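User: New here, any thoughts?
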Amino acid sequence: MSLRGRWQIGNTAPGRMRVTGCLSAWLLGVLLGIGAVLAGNPAQAHTSLVSSSPADQSTLAAEPTRVSLDFDEPLGRPAFVVVTAPDGTTVSREDPEVAGTRVSSAIEATGLAGQYTVAFRVVSTDGHTLSDELTYTVSSGHAASASAVSDSSDKSTGFFSEPHGFHLVLAGGGGALTALFVLYRPLRRRRE
């Protein structure tokens, strides 16, 4: 069999063209759906943390009285900052203050040495959220009791979990609807 006969080069049957057109439309819809899912990926969120005081994973000689987080975009409200001491107690004392690209919160002294966790959730003015955690260590003070430390380590590590499942479902649904539209359109033309 010649190459021309095997691959139907030249004059193709009308039925084969419809199948090829439907497959092309289906492939286009799938690619659009994948693109929409990737565009809604949480890794591509707009707001990002630029710096913090205390710095992430830093060691301090004394407890700070305030935690400040600086971002690359202006922030909206609400903003949340939760500082957790080595014994698992929350030491942030007030609602965080938002000023431009900075969010800060006063924290209560505990007298404890060890690792503190700063969990935050902020919203940029364009509506994108960012949730994350950072830590700092205080080298002076007394150690937390062993039972308090084990109780706090049993808790979930993600204070503000942000699975973005809704975004993925929305993007995937949009891609599926696009694929259905692209596939249905040629069928509708044929009926008319």
